Amino acid sequence: MEMMQNQRGRDMSAPITHITLNGTRYQLAFTNMAARVAEDVYEQQYGQDMGYADILAALTKFKYKAVMAMLYGALIAGGTSMSWDEFDAAFKLDSIDGIRDIILKGVADSLPKADDAKDGAENP
Length: 124
Fold this sequence. Notes:
This protein is mainly alpha-helical. Helix content is 48%, strand content 6%. Helix 1 crosses helix 3. The longest helix has 14 residues.
């Protein structure tokens, strides 16, 4: 008899493909167009001249401006017609499918790992 594995949460290695804004689910496309739109957001909305590589570096630090700029770019590249102001008003972190699981994994990954070889003592 084959045992079924229960899957909880989201596959962290799977790319984010959709975003939900005001109850409507939208397709995302992370393309060259998304990168260009994200750069435009930084320039026009944030008043900063940031290249795509800098935006990606900010994303690795989970900077909110970078998250919003990239997701807006991917939303537009995915074929949605929405102004920045509409997106800004509707966007919340929980708009991202599986964000709670992503944040929890990030927190868990950032915690120091126990080093059993260091002192040989068991943790209580």
